[in-house]
Amino acid sequence: MTTIRLIGAPTDVGASVRGAGMGPDALRVAGLAETLSRQGLTVVDGGNLAGPATPWGEPPEGGLRHLDEVVAWNRSVYDAVDTALGAHEVPLLMGGDHCLAIGSISAVAWHARKRNKKLRVIWLDAHSDVNTETTSPSGNLHGMPVACLLGHGPAPLTGWSGERAAVGHDALRFIGIRSVDADEREAIRTLGLQVYDMRHIDEHGMRTTMVEALQDVDDDTHLHVSFDLDCLDPDVAPGVGTGVRGGPTYREMQLCMEMIADTGRLGSLDVVEINPALDVRNRTAELAVEFIESLFGKSTLVR
To 5 degrees, how large is the angle CA 273–CA 158–CA 166? Predict the structure, then answer.
């Protein structure tokens, strides 16, 4: 039986606004553990990790805000995900902001390499998160996790998987992107990243998009999903710190999740950037629980 390990990381250390640190408990209030248990899954809630407070008000240093604190939080995340994978559990990281994916995916990459598994990362987000300290307008590290995972970020946040780049450019598939800085646009082209932006989804539909994104996932693949709730349109999911209009609808995102579940290869998951301070009656966390339920196999009919 599949065991899911819930890992709370209550911090907004890499974000631009306060509030994402309340995300793990918002997911608990929305009934995440109970919902997954009803699907016959074993759920273990490991509680919340501990880490430094966010030093709000401090200016960026060297183009980076809160670097030491981001490193500390990601080290805690890395260790927790590493432990879960070592116990053959499915780690479900509850953020917190998206900078936490550095620790999470670095640990996943190390385990995938050790087990001779191909790693595929589905990055569900409005943003490409491929800025660096030299290109970021703000210095916020939640806009840099992809760059760090590709080995192009600041030295303290690269190389954690045993290789400078935790993932290669060909391991990433971006879904729902629609907010990209000018330097990020050039980086996407230079690095050869596979981005299915909202125009692609508009023109080809979510089904075709996911067929393309998942076409070479096989039995030797470890599939990781990094789900930033701002991937959704803010009319659907208002409780996010950096919402961008024009995202996928509720039904499009459900189809995305169901098609990922159909592969049977989901091995780890990040759910990040839920900001209850900006939400309406915990609506965004409740939506996240519905999508997570679909990721783990809920469907209307037996297929």
Answer: 80
Domain boundaries, the chain: 3-295
Of the candidates 85, 66, 62, the one whose C-alpha atom is nearest the C-alpha of residue 7 is: 85
- Per the annotation, the verdict on 252 as an active-site residue is no
Q: Average of pLDDT values for 34-47?
A: 97
Render pLDDT for 177-192 as a digit per residue (tens, 0 to 9): 999 999 999 999 999 9
Instruction: Tell me the two tokens of residue 275.
Output: 């900001």
What's the mean pLDDT in 28-50?
Answer: 97
- 3-295 is classed CATH 3.40.800.10: yes
Contact, 6 vs 62, CB < 8 A? no
Quick check: is 68 catalytic?
A: no
Residue 265 has pLDDT above 80, yes or no: yes
98 counts as catalytic: yes
Is 142 a residue of the active site? yes
**Catalytic residue list contains 219:** no
Helix (H, G, I), strand (E, B) or coil at 285: helix
Angstrom distance (rounded) from CA 244 to CA 238:
10
Active site residue 181: no
Render pLDDT for 100-118 as a digit per residue (tens, 0 to 9). Answer: 999 999 999 999 999 999 9
Catalytic residue among 12, 69, 82, 125: 125
The residue annotated as part of the active site, out of 66, 82, 98, 258, is: 98
> Is there a catalytic annotation at residue 111?
no
